[in-house]
Amino acid sequence: MQLLPLNSFLPKKLLLSAVVIVCVYTFSACSSPKSITYFNTLNKDTTLQGFITDTYESKIQKKDVLAITVSSLNKEMDEVFNNAVSDVNETATAGPKPAAGFVVDEKGNILIHMLGSVHVEGLSRNELKQKLQKELLPYMKEPIVGVQYLNHKITVIGFVERPQVITLTGEQMPLLDALVTSGDLKDVAKRDDIMIIREQGDQKQIKHINLQDQSLFSSPWYYLQSNDIVYVMPDKNRSDKDEKRRTLQTTMALIASGVSLLLIIINNFIK
Fold first, then answer.
1. Which of 132, 194, 229, 243 could form a cystine bridge with 145, CB 3.0-4.6 A?
2. Domain annotation covers residue 34
3. Residues 158 and 223 both lie in one domain
4. Is residue 202 part of a domain?
5. Dihedral sign computed on CA atoms, order 175, 229, 101, 201
6. For 26-51, how does the pLDDT look when each residue is reduced to its tens digit (9 = 90+)?
């Protein structure tokens, strides 16, 4: 019986088809994961009730660093006051030179040019502003005082693109703003369990926030406060799936390369 040549069983079209099938299967295994969404419970074109407003006013505490500026109708007095900040700090504190601001000492006081020691602990920024404007009237004409914090911060750690410490110049910051400032959450981050750690006196309060639920907008934790720590945890299930997907991608790529090489060798052999 006459044997048929090997290349009659493996024509070039068949080899090409085999390579194409292997490549298609490989790319299908490497398909990207499903898109990630926020606020899944929100109805389309809806109105939220009980939205949290930005009305919180923090109280000045010991060791706070305050930026205090004065503007009046007397520019010479403005310069005398504003340029005296660094001199006041050098005499008020020991150790490394602090930022250009007024440090609240252990008694809750700051040293103000012309006014001397002023008790500020327990006041809000607006209350301190009003107090200083009143007490500076004998020395300045129509003084306008500005008060800002220099040492207030929020810490964002975990599975975000850029873990960092964010300077908090105002009273508070929306949680979403802090996450966006940190480059948003990574794909493998948990979006239904964001941990916030907050200082309350000598205690630590811990709250878990679900970014996929609209209740975030009515939560008192929607706004972050000074010294809050935001910890974005990994989604273990998603992380495991991604790891398996990457392993499958690598395996299928190696198989595809091996099969393609084998088919090329066979094709050259039977010519």
1. 132
2. no
3. yes
4. yes
5. positive
6. 555 555 555 566 667 666 766 666 66
pLDDT at 240: 58
Of 29, 30, 25, 22, which Cα lies nearest the Cα of 259? 22
The answer to whether residue 15 sits within a structural domain is no
| pLDDT tens string 103-134 | 999 999 999 888 899 999 999 999 999 999 99
Total count of domains within the chain: 2
Q: Give the integer Cα–Cα distance in Å for 45 and 43.
A: 6
CB 59 within 8 A of CB 201: no
At residue 3, the pLDDT reads 46
- For residue 78 the two structure tokens come to 């403005």
Q: Does residue 181 surpass a pLDDT of 80?
A: yes
Residue 193 lies in a domain: yes
Q: Which domain holds residue 187?
A: 153-237
- The residue written with tokens 């935001």 in the block is 230
Q: Where are the alpha helices (DSSP H) in the chain?
A: 12-29, 75-82, 85-92, 125-135, 175-181, 236-269
Q: Can you give the pTM of this predicted structure?
A: 0.65
pLDDT beyond 60 at 266: yes
Give the Cα separation of 195 and 208 in Å (integer).
5
- Going 262 to 263 to 268 to 271, the CA torsion angle's sign is positive
Contact in structure between 143 and 72 (CB atoms under 8 Å): yes
pLDDT at 87: 47
Neighbours of 1 (CB within 10 A): 2
Identify the pLDDT of residue 123: 95
Cα separations (Å) of 65 from 98, 122, 129, 170, 259? 8, 14, 15, 13, 67
Q: What CATH number is given to the structural domain containing 206? A: 3.10.560.10
